[in-house]
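Worked example 3 (structure in, sequence out).
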């Protein structure tokens, strides 16, 4: 019985060490990736169907305005500087789109750090974690969100690989986020790592 308990203890310790190492790797990879992206976060006024449709229209308007601004930009820091300089116009564009569709909601656009959940898109998956984001809030901002990436424009119709490479993503980072369900599994260790770290504290 004593040997069995000893083996169980050793197995648990090995599993714990593996989880910590995998979590540290995943956390480091996520931070490196997030430093090369600028997310887009559009928050609807409410979950009513009309408000959700308005959210998508505002999303399209923001992406349409941002695309030429960020054309030729090769890193997230430059993209953030450009977006920051154009925040009043981005806000106005979103506001005008809201008015054009018959709504008198206030609209606010800001750049901030936000924690995003893991998110799967058509051709790639982004791990959960903290990212810099252009957040556009419509009205009360109590409705469902729309998340994607404003830089590089990975959610557009262009060639994903070329777009990602031009923005400075490495082949290994591109392979990581296009790994389908694998990226969710790999970055699950970030969550485990954080729980273990909090437990030890």
């Amino acid at each position: 019985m004593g040997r069995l308990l000893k083996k169980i203890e050793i197995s648990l310790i090995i599993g714990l060490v593996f989880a910590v190492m995998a979590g540290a790797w995943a956390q480091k990879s996520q931070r490196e990736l997030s430093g090369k992206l600028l997310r887009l976060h559009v928050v609807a006024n409410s979950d009513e169907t009309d408000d959700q449709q308005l959210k998508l229209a505002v999303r399209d308007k923001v992406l349409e305005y941002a695309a030429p601004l960020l054309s030729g930009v090769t890193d997230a820091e430059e993209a953030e500087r450009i977006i920051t300089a154009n925040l009043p116009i981005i806000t106005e564009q979103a506001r005008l789109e809201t008015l054009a569709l018959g709504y008198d909601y206030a609209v606010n656009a800001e750049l901030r750090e936000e924690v995003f959940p893991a998110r799967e898109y058509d051709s790639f998956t982004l791990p959960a974690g903290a990212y810099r984001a252009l957040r556009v809030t419509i009205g009360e901002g109590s409705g469902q969100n729309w998340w994607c990436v404003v830089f590089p424009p990975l959610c557009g119709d262009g060639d994903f690989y070329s777009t990602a490479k031009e923005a400075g993503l490495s082949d290994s980072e591109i392979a990581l986020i296009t790994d389908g369900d694998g990226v969710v599994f790999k970055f699950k260790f970030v969550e485990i790592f954080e729980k273990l770290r909090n437990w030890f504290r």
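Notes: Residues 2-34 form the longest helix (33 residues). The chain has a mean pLDDT of 80.
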